[in-house]
Amino acid sequence: MFDGDHKGKHIFGTVRVGERGQIVIPKKAREIFSIQPGDTLLVLGDEKRGIAIVKADSFHAMAMKMLTVFDREPEEAPED
Question: Does this model's pTM top 0.85?
């Protein structure tokens, strides 16, 4: 869909928000990101940049990697 530095980036089109606040994730997006019925998605937001939707299991795996920082001994604070 993009070329050059945009490899792996996608624009899937537009979706309409229904009366109950629901959207349909486009089929191509579901295929690329392996989103299946019953999957749990995490909705993140930044008031200036917008909304991001990620698979909860992917986010969990990333968070667990981030927590490995606690496996290391803490560094001493520099003295003034």
Answer: no
Give the burial class of 8: count Cβ atoms within 10 A of its Cβ; 0-12 exposed, 13-18 middle, 19 or more buried: exposed
User: Which DSSP helix (H) or strand (E) runs through 51?
Assistant: strand 50-55
Whether residues 31 and 44 share a domain: the answer is no
DSSP state of 72: S
Would you tell me how many other CB atoms lie within 10 Å of the CB of residue 34?
9
Per-residue model confidence as pLDDT tens digits over 18-50? 999 999 999 999 999 999 999 999 898 999 999
Domain that holds residue 3: 1-35
SS3 52: strand
Domain co-membership, 29 together with 44: no
